[in-house]
Every structure is written in C-alpha cells, then in structure tokens.
Write a structure and sequence with these properties.
4 helices, three-stranded antiparallel beta sheet
C-alpha cells in the first residue's frame, strides 16, 4: 500500500489529475483535455480499447482472452515519489490513462468500483505488472516501481487496471468516489 488513506464507500476521497490516450501502441500516452470511456471497451481511441485483450504479448498468447486492462490508473503520489528519486515522470508517460491524487489505488480490493466524474464507472481488476519497457523509457524505472512489504512480499506500485462498466467523459479535477465490494475483500494481484 502507498500509505494514502483508504476511504469508506461513497466518500469523495480522490480526484482526477490528468487523462491520457493514444491510438498507436506506444509506451507513453499524450495528456488530453478529456477522454471518453466506453462501456465494455475502455478509452475511446486508445490502443488498448476492446472487449478482448489488446496488450501485444497477451494477444500473441490468446487473443480471445477478456480485456481486464481496459483502463490504467496511476496515483500521482507515485509520480511525486519517482520525481524525488530523479526520474523524469509526468502524467501519461508510463502509459496510464488516468492519473489520480488522494486515493490509495493499490489498497483497493478487486471488484471495487470507481466513479469518475459525473457518469463513468470502472471496476478494478488488478495491478499493472511492470515490464521491461519501463527501463527502456528510463534506466532503473522498473526497479523503482517495485518494492517489498514488511513480510518481504513483492509490491507492484505501477498502478491498477480496470474495466469500464459505465461510459462517460472524464476530465482533470473530476471527483473520484469508491464503492466497495461485499466482503470478503480480495487483494489485488497482477493482471
């Protein structure tokens, strides 16, 4: 967990800092004034939008798998941490669609629903599994987004993935609220 507070259902814990999308498969995504989420697909006009997997390695393995990575969210606090360590990181550069602030994304359980802005609702599916592309972008970045908890377990800090349940336009400064799934809560794992 990132040390950010977890908030109860219905609270207004966080906000959208930036939104990004890119049509071609590239590592970074340009920041936009707004993005539109499409139910069951992802971000309109983004390379990773689709009902089935769009991540290149997953398509090669089995193109019929459901796309559990329709939306990538990173907490802005991670960007602050990385910048303090000398990395040149800004919203969108690590491939995320939504940069947030004030919400412990990594501490959410699988199945949590995030309300982004007035209409959009996404369901958290798991953690982004950092890959070699981070080091190709900036040397040492992959190790910087991995950590160990007090028990020595690997902690992936490169954000979370979600599917889009209800579409809508989202913009910077939109509020984010959380609906928690019924217990027992399942910790996030890589997807």
């Amino acid at each position: 967990m990132s040390g950010l507070p977890l908030f109860s259902q219905g609270a207004a814990p966080g906000r959208v800092v930036a939104v990004a999308r890119n049509g071609p498969h590239t590592f970074s995504k340009p920041v936009r004034h707004s993005i539109r989420l499409l139910a069951g697909l992802g971000v309109e006009g983004d390379a990773h939008a689709g009902a089935t997997v769009r991540h290149r390695s997953r398509v090669a393995a089995d193109p019929t798998q459901p796309n559990l990575r329709q939306l990538h969210l990173i907490h802005g606090e991670l960007l602050d941490e990385l910048a303090a360590r000398g990395f040149a990181v800004t919203p969108g550069v690590m491939g995320e669609n939504v940069t947030t602030r004030g919400l412990d994304l990594l501490g959410l359980p699988r199945g949590a629903r995030l309300h982004l802005g007035a209409e959009a609702v996404v369901e958290v599916t798991g953690l982004r599994n950092p890959c070699y592309q981070l080091d190709a972008f900036q040397a040492g970045l992959m190790a910087a987004v991995l950590d160990r908890d007090a028990k020595g377990r690997l902690v992936r800090k490169a954000g979370i993935m979600a599917i889009v349940l209800n579409g809508g336009e989202i913009r910077p400064d939109d509020a984010i609220t959380v609906d928690w799934p019924a217990p027992p809560h399942r910790a996030l794992d890589k997807v």
